Amino acid sequence: MTQIRVRDAGMFLGVSDDTVRRWIEKGTLEAAADARGRTVIEGTEVARMARELAVTPELAGGARSSARNRFVGIVTNVVMDTVMAQVQLQCGPFRVVSLMSSEAARELGLEPGKIASAVIKATHVVIEAEPAAAPTGPSTPSTPEGAA
Q1: Alpha-carbon distance 75 to 87, whole Å?
Q2: The whole model's pTM is what?
Q3: Contacts 24+ apart (CB under 8 A), 101-104
Q4: Ranges of H-type helices in 1-148
Q5: Which residue intervals of 27-111 are DSSP H helices?
Q6: Whole-angstrom Cα distance, residue 19 to residue 2?
Q7: pLDDT of 5-41, one tens digit each?
Q8: CA–CA separation, 146 vs 148, rounded Å?
């Protein structure tokens, strides 16, 4: 299992180290000590908490959509010429940039300070992670222990 240190858990959850420590003291998060005596949290526990905290704000009167990747934020910059516009949104800790027609940007009234949402519908998403540790013992990544 992946073990995550308190400061890293705070970074992934968007809260301070102190908040993570308070959650551990209250029992909101389960933690243990690693081999060096440092407080660590199982990755699955951090993932559970991240899901609980992930409440996406909705725009008033928002339409229904099949897209599930919706980031509500505030417009921070708009660069527009006669044909195209580059619109930047700050959605929590994430900066989202969209290129669209200037006509669309004008119709939406996009300008710094306006609340908007970036809706992402993609068929190809790349996920990056550090490689897993080399397996030890009889199991391999393609055949879990106990599988025939």
Answers
A1: 7
A2: 0.53
A3: none
A4: 6-13, 17-26, 43-53, 102-108
A5: 43-53, 102-108
A6: 21
A7: 999 888 888 889 999 999 999 999 999 999 999 999 9
A8: 7
